Amino acid sequence: MARNIDSIPFPNWAKDNSLKKVIKLTREAKAQSSLFDDFDYYSVSKLSNMNRSILVERHLINPAFLENVKGRGILIERSEESSVIVNEEDHLRFQTIKGGFSLKATLKRIKTIENSVGSYLPFSFSSRYGYLTSCPTNVGTGIRISLFCHLPGLALSNMLGGLFNDIMPTGIIIRGFFGEGSEFSSTIFQVSNQVTLGFTEEEILNRLSIIAKKIIEMERNAQIDLKKRKRDVLEDKVFRAIGIIKGARFLTMFEFYSLLSALKLGSSIGIIPKIENSILNIMIVTCQPMHIQRTNNKPLKKVEIEKKRAHLVREMLGLDCIFE
Amino acid sequence: MICENCKTRDANIHITQAGLGYKKEINLCTECLTKKGLYSPLAYLSEYLGDILKELITQDKSRATDYFMTACTECGMPFDRFLDKGLLGCARCYDSFSLEMKKILNRFHGTAQHVTLSRERRKPVSPIGTKTLELLKAELKTAVESENFERAAELRDKIKKINRIEENKEN
Q: For a Cys staple, A120 with which of A29, A149, A169, B98, CB 3.0–4.6 Å?
């Protein structure tokens, strides 16, 4: 949720003293509410390069945020569920990340946080355009709701192209690595609202929710259909993935995502014993380059990271290595 | 297929995105993708939305430009900078470039009117752009008196611009 403080230029055009003023006001707003007791403020310029990259890999900040770190900060809840980014594209960006299909709870949480800051700071608001943001793509409600969906069934059934076409006119945007025909492709897709103006927050949430539920239903049907008609193809994909994980000495991020996707599908469809989603989700985070780098004292080369990743994946899944 | 970013290596990653009246495939090599921080499918969307906006703006640019405001009366940001970066300088820019903004918002969101919620009756304390001519003139006077000529020049330009708008309105 994007908000700007009234009468201060937007960060991309603001002078240093204005950026400082935004930080000062934000920290004052934090201090006046007990809601922020569990939040810590970090000045990005004071963070090490490693910690900055960790924030990117945890999806708390955008890599572009690090291009110019001067006058930029972040308030992070200790659980990392909610955070407030200061002086990115807008003065304040409130974000909350929750697991599962918990759109309503996420919106409620973010509104509570925004309200708390808003009761202390005046936000730029116009009755015609709503909340005014630096980029006109966010104006109005200033809200972007995203849902990450794993859609291997639709990908394997070659149904994604049709889905993309169906979604185009709805004001919902879908994005992902779309590797039809390519051997390794991730099948995690991000579904978000594109339109932020002309609808209330609840309407945006409802539209997204209806479309996401439809996509999930399509995915479930595709999986059932694949299981019925192409069980051998599915088994091949899943067992091949297990074979690679057991034998691979190096794993790139792309290959890792693709293997994980196959395991997740195999587990949900019942080809292999159930792997808890929580384990797979933790792996998505901890197998990223900086997270692997962090557990090591000296800097690692790209191939060394890939080697450690291959080892880590086996270890986390409890699989034995072939010919070790 | 060659990577769109470096234009040298082979593009082995194809990202597809679809949105309102818009579908695009982006072809990148692994290296450029990593550099852009997009190696994770969970990466941020903003860059993509920026792309869509830029496309809309470029379409606008190719038409005869009919905006008469060249810079924002409040923050002084030139309109050309918005065409280049896709970002506005301050809240008042929406009014300064209102003709262009309405077009862009209509095309991106399908509307240029916000739906106000009841809770938004908690309005911000000062509406945007309250710096009236009188305030600016008073500030100019203090700036001249305190020999802050840089600021004075800025203010003088702002006042000139507002006067020009007023004249245009009367005409």
A: A29
